[in-house]
Design brief:
The complex is a heterodimer of chains A (493) and B (445). Chain A has 15 helices and twelve strands. By secondary structure, chain A is of the alpha/beta class. Chain A has a seven-stranded mixed beta sheet, with helices on both faces. In chain A, helix 3 runs antiparallel to helix 10 (336-372), helix 5 runs parallel beside helix 10 and helix 6 (147-164) packs across helix 7 (181-188). Chain B has two domains: 67-78 and 346-444, Aspartate Aminotransferase, domain 1; 81-338, Type I PLP-dependent aspartate aminotransferase-like (Major domain) (Aspartate Aminotransferase, domain 2), CATH 3.40.640.
Chain lengths: 493, 445
Amino acid sequence: MIRKVRSHINQDEPLLVERSSPGKKGYQLPPLDVPAVDPRAALGPDNVRDEIAGFPEVSEVEVIRHYTRLSTWNYAIDLGVYPLGSCTMKYNPRVNEFVARLDGLALAHPYQPEAVAQGAMRIQVELERALAEITGMPAVTLQPAAGAHGELTGILLIRALLESRGNPRRKVLIPDSAHGTNPATAAIAGYQVESIPSNAEGMIDLGELDRRVDDSVAALMVTNPNTLGVFERDITLAARLLHERGAMLYMDGANMNALVGIARPGDFGVDVMHLNLHKTFSTPHGGGGPGGGPVAVTREFEPFLPLPRIAGDGLLRYDYDRPQSIGRVRAFYGNFGVLVRALAYILAHGGDGLRNATLDAVLNANYVRRGLEGCYEVPYAAPSLHECVLSDKRQAALGVRTGDIAKRLIDYGFHPYTVSFPLIVHGALMIEPTETEDKRELDLFIDALRSIAEEVRDNPETVRTAPHNTRVRRVDEVAAARKPVVRWKPAAS
Amino acid sequence: MRYLPKSNAERREMLDSLGLATLEDLFAHLPDEVRLKRPLDLAPGISEYEIIDYFRARAAENDGGFASFLGAGAYYHYRPVIIDAIVQRGEFLTAYTPYQPEISQGTLTAIFEFQTMLCQLTGMDVCNASMYDGSTALPEAVMMACRVTGRTRAVVARSVHPEYREVHRTYARYQGLPVVEAPWNRETGLVDLPALEALVDDQTAAVVVQSPNFFGCVEPVREAARIAHARGALLVVMFTEAVSLGLLEPPADADIVAGELQSFAISPSYGGPYVGVMAAKEKYIRQMPGRLVGQTTDAGGQRAYCLTLATREQHIRRERATSNICTNQALIALMATVFMSVYGKQGLRELAEQNLAKAHYLAAQLEKLVEKRGARLRFSGPFFNEFVVDCGGRDPAEINRRLLGDKIIGGLELGRFEPDLSGCLLLCATETARRETMDRLVNRF
């Protein structure tokens, strides 16, 4: 039974350009207080454009209505649980938005003199220190703009360090349970990717690792806990094996929400890792970004970190004199506004609060798992941390797949879980509730998935053709890719 | 903790359902040697009130109520109030990537409009849903050109933003992609076309210019395109000052146009988050990096949007993806979209014309100082809203210090990037520069 939602009216809305009419305005500029300049004279006649064909002309109220109406077509964390595995969609505290917009931060220019940028620099130093403590790794760069950008920075750091020792090596090993960004990153960093099969428990196979790590291997990239939500029990042994053979251990920190305050990657042998500020540290996803992907490293990597580094004790300054640095990975200093939000989150929690958040995150995932294991197959028995992975094995036997169940969940008022990932689980349902869900929301979620499991038995067609209650029905993604239409064009006249 | 929505009684109930005595039992299976056996060395959590105090104090260390003439990749433009009103709606702010189109039509429609408007501005056929920023869009554009041409070499004008070039070198170096730089003409400040032509060869995948370039000058895009195309290379045109697109001839001769949209009402925010973008000719769409939104229909035949051509991307193609990019800058792209919607066809033009007028006023006033203090415009190339001033043998740092004493942040000292321009400042005047402040700057110069 659907208990969380009922339908209500929401507004239709055309594209903004379809509201356009010549001469409508949504702006007013102040009068020009200097002489006007003829563009053709100043820039040369060939450098000046004609009018922007097809660009909208609308009033302010239409702009507000347009985007407000569009907004009501979205699901959002502010409406309910976002159970996407390895995505850590937690509450985004509003005070973080407030402080990021303070004039002294939002209006700071990246090139303003260091003497009048000390506040911005201190925020970075403070965040670096907190992330170093949380990861157990002594040095942190805040420059990368997102997780995959952090991965690239991290793998380039490994490459640079190995190169300085005489041989960058050729290969990066990646478990078959990894996120797609890991192999894509290794390839862009100039490495061959070798996928290594997980063992029967879904974990790193030490025997397999032992066979594969030789002097051609630069690093192993692991996610820990892995994408099954399971802690890699042999991680310290894996680290030792790699280190003995001159290879490095890279950790994808996508699942760090399971470990903050409980275990530190620096203490279990990780050399380089990235964090996702838009996951673990609550900065908003915003429909796909912006994010932040700081990279934490052991001491030996510090000389190679991206330019610039902040130096000094009293008066802070930027240090560009770092001959071993991999160079810049982004203009200026990273997604500063995202860094502000992440630091606000850390300050709000403090050390104890961060640890308590981890406890609740893991409690929630286990509670959901317990609530669903009677209806859905649990492919791996190992204990879950912050997320759990189920499979559609029982439902698939009745002709209903994980993707169908996900779409039916929408009718029940929930965003779907992560579908068909990790790849090592056939028909996966990957669920991460995070700590910011209350018990009532979790109970409704469990009830919904149980109810769908019944529907699969009694009325599979309802599930296969879901969603039924949304303003658009199942969207034809295949047609979209066959003949891509990626922009509006005026109807042929 | 106010963000944790459970009572201890509820935790107890949940633990009971799991047959566990304490929350710590959830971690009993972790190997002992990995456990952190002490509290994190971080201060105790603080209230909202104290958080705001902390950041106000940091903000005060930055903010002295200065007028600023800095540009160089981050510009001060007026931000219409409705932009924050819209992007702070939880349905946009706290939504995930729109992989589930049935409950993400808001984000998807807005991105489709973003892509459309960027195509109209740049003269390209297709545009992606955003990149991290302009600087990372440059190496992504070059890597795309390498895939399209099957070549590896890039020729980059030295008049491209120096930090963008540095980022490009970091990306290129470890992939073994050769990069050579074409000099700028010492008179005009524009890329030296004969030198560029001499550097482009049959192994060149991409020729990269920026317009307006780092010195504020409008580059000869058509000539650069002719040079690139004559040797089968693609032309990549970068931009850092998007407001210029309202006035300048769109770089339609380019194959790829990439750049930074910070000028579209994104706060300077000490360097980020901003929003990069990449647009291209339609035939290259399958080689583009990043997310793309496409139009389709739903099961009932209605118009709908969804992410498309995902087989280019890392989550499907893994090590054979066109890029490793995953997260983009959707919310910042939404800010830019609302900005473009507010200004519209006429407004963007008018805004660009005001920028042109302000910068040309400032430049003209400074030129009047030639006889008195030796200052002069360094380059003869046409400029939009920023320009290089030669300080006439005086130390630019000294001029900036004097201006700072008068609550004015002057220009960027170019010596840090170009030793040949160590006597020069890069000054920017947007629509937000008041005549009175510009006059004050000129008087103290």
